[in-house]
Amino acid sequence: MASKTAERILLVSLELFNQQGEANITSVDIANELDMSPGNLYYHFKGKEEITAALFSMYQDRMKRVLFSPGENGLVIKDFFYFLYLTFETSHLFRFLYRNPSDLVAKYPYIEKGFKNLIKNKEKGFNQILNDFIKQGSLAVKREELVHLIELISMVLTQGLNYYVMKGDDIDDDDIIYRGLASVFFALSPYLDIEEQQKNDLQLAIANGTLDQ
Amino acid sequence: MASKTAERILLVSLELFNQQGEANITSVDIANELDMSPGNLYYHFKGKEEITAALFSMYQDRMKRVLFSPGENGLVIKDFFYFLYLTFETSHLFRFLYRNPSDLVAKYPYIEKGFKNLIKNKEKGFNQILNDFIKQGSLAVKREELVHLIELISMVLTQGLNYYVMKGDDIDDDDIIYRGLASVFFALSPYLDIEEQQKNDLQLAIANGTLDQ
Predict the structure, then answer these.
(1) Closest Cα of chain A to B211: distance in Å?
(2) What is the pTM for the complete model shown?
(3) Which residues of chain B make contact with A190, given a CB cutoff of 8 A?
(4) Is the distance from CB of B10 to CB of B55 less than 8 angstroms?
């Protein structure tokens, strides 16, 4: 995967997949877009399956880095939203994976397995952080309700894009992320036991799209 | 659409589409499943496109009937959840539409337009009912926050299935509906200004899957 050409192939494939869906792109389309002969492309990747596999593994690596980044205790609620922002952003970069997950899962067994593990790890991460907040006293959610909160967050993060596509909303990438976060904030907000000022600041940072600053 | 054969073709197509995705089924697959010659199928529907169009229009009709059913004022919160149950159930019956919406929307212009209208009407319906609750005093949500609540509900209703598929959860149809409703209840619950007993009864009906009884 080290070669410059292989990297260029992956980036162009990612862009085409994101724009038109993996199912609608052939390896010949990718070669054409790169002004490359199909034979040359084949030298680097043995067909679209290998490209998809390489992209999925890039996605997994990035997600793992994001998911293991908080690690330490002592996160505050704002950090959690920043962490969600990063998770959302990374998924958005590989958004073709979320276009038709049922088909991808049926077609590629490693994606089926990989998605399961990723979502499991993601929800485990959320669970740990949210449990810390409950212990700290900044989140007043019963432990048995946590599963619903986590499902809501996870659904917004993984399915938000499809929803906006179906709705026909023409909004740009950063807006999608922040709109999702605003909905998560709405669901979480009544359960937050933090100072009113902090709460307002956080809501403002989400509304203004400045969480990452 | 009146003929018994046409009806049978649609029902079998719906089942195949739901199981394997519209993109993975050809009109020959449908004819085979029906023990029918492709020519006979063609006599009723000129290809898969016409079948998909007929199914989408069935879905639209059913959804319209559900969406216009509450109509009258004087709904209580429990009615709203029953209304969500019906909406969810109808979408679930035509769940192939939610498998890869981006592809369907790109392939069929009438689905693109139809989805937009449906989601718009659905959210308008939610908005009206929730606004009535605000007026009645049973829901304490600021009008400008309503958009987030509606997005959350709509996302759970339209994207819940893909989420459970990705997660690899093997749960049956009714469970998916009630699990989604439990997450909606979690988000809505702190904003509900109704008697504690009513709230507990509703939560129990959702947990036990007895909302429709």
Answers:
(1) 18
(2) 0.86
(3) 190-191
(4) yes
**Residue B207: burial class (beta carbons within 10 Å; 0-12, 13-18, 19+):** middle
B1: pLDDT strictly greater than 60? no
Q: Do A183 and B151 touch (CB under 8 A)?
A: yes
What three-state secondary structure class fits B139? strand
| B89-142 pLDDT, tens digit each | 998 899 899 887 778 888 899 998 998 888 888 888 889 899 999 999 999 999
- CA-closest candidate to residue B90, choices B13, B177, B3: B177
- Note whether B82 and B211 are within 8 A (CB): yes
Integer Cα distance of B109 and B114 in angstroms: 8
Q: ipTM exceeding 0.85?
A: no
Encoded tokens for B103: 């592809």
Residues A51 and A29 sit within 8 Å (Cβ to Cβ)? no
* B105, B149, B155 member nearest A156 (Cβ): B155
Nearest CA in chain A to B120: A167
Distance CA B202, CA A189 (A): 22
